[in-house]
Predict the 3D structure of the following.
Amino acid sequence: MEKLFHLKEHGTTIRTEIIAGLTTFFTMAYIIFVNPTFLGDGTPPNMPSIAVMAATCLSAAVGTWLIGWMTNYPLAQAPGMGLNAVFAYTLCGSMGLSFYAALAAVFTGGVFFILLTVTGARKAIVDAIPLSLKKAISAGIGFFIALIGFNNAGLLSSTTGTIIGMGALNVPTTLLALFGLILTIVLVIKKVPGALFISILCTSAIACLLQFVFQIPMGVSMPESWAPVLDFSVFGAAFKGFGELFSAPIASLISVLITLVLVDMFDTIGTLIGAANKAGYLDENGNLPKVERAMLADAIATSAGAVIGTSTVTTYVESTAGISAGGKTGLTSTVTGICFALSIFLSPVLGFIPSAATAPILIVVGIMMASALKEIDWADMSIAIPSFLTVVCMPLFYSITDGLAFGFISYVVVKLASRKIKEIHPLMYVIVSLFLIKYILAALTAAGIL
């Protein structure tokens, strides 16, 4: 252990690292049950829910081991919140791709990320995006995720005579979701370790009690068969989608790549810097040593996750929980990865976790991501306008891609109008041009010209 992780050099012990690894796992274990909410049966991808859960566990284990062993940092990876929303509601929803093609896109994006990382281009692109827009992207995705959570909880309705309104409060599953939301908020405020995971388990237990004892339908089902796992997760579903992906209209293909590249890059850099700052790994200039290795581990995990059968894998800010518990080396990551690997055997009990138990988690995660708004200078209209459009367009258009596009395009327009041309990085012109090309090609395709 000492030769692998240099425990003495980092002032830690095996016991401390094990405790830290367990802490990180229980803090982020909610993704095991939440990811199938986005990708599973009944959502746009319509992937086998039990297979998604198994793929989530396995990809999290692989990604966490990779980043821990390649950097010796106590970080953990799993299919990303926000990135799974992009997969479900953008790639498979608005773009109309099958989940096979969407997985192929994620795999291709992972390979592309690997090339960008080893050449240093990935970091250059991230550095070109102004900090205000990076913060707005995080907050916008948070609002988008919260919108999905409110909808899954039954708290939204479009039958009120308005564009949107509050749902009926006399529905048992909605009342259960409200209970879950209150419980989650209390646990988070009390800073209970693993608050989101505990909330899911407690709310699900109440749902099972109400359904099986009092015969009140709560969306709970009996244990499932392992067959979908064997048929789907381990046989590289991503490779079945390349034909569909590359036969799609060029506008759609460009849109897919732009979406995956931008969202994953910002998500990864943001969580890496946040977790590293908590651990004290940033140097005097605010840079993270071995950041290229960390991003490479993220890129490899993304491609591996697509082959296993899930959306983009990324570093989790919940890694800070293990760091707070004393984790300082990759041994923490090793323990967390082992926990995820063992969790694969929980897959058949996924049916006991109703949507009402995971919906509150989406809302609270959205609240956490919205905290990035405080770091935006709202007094400067040249910053406030593109940031605001980025944040509100994501949930209003029900598209993370369109939110990015409106934010980025408006940023360049506002800076040009205010004669602050020097503040626009040259790469921003390239990114905005790609978005404009995307919309022009989409319009020409819709008009039957292409």
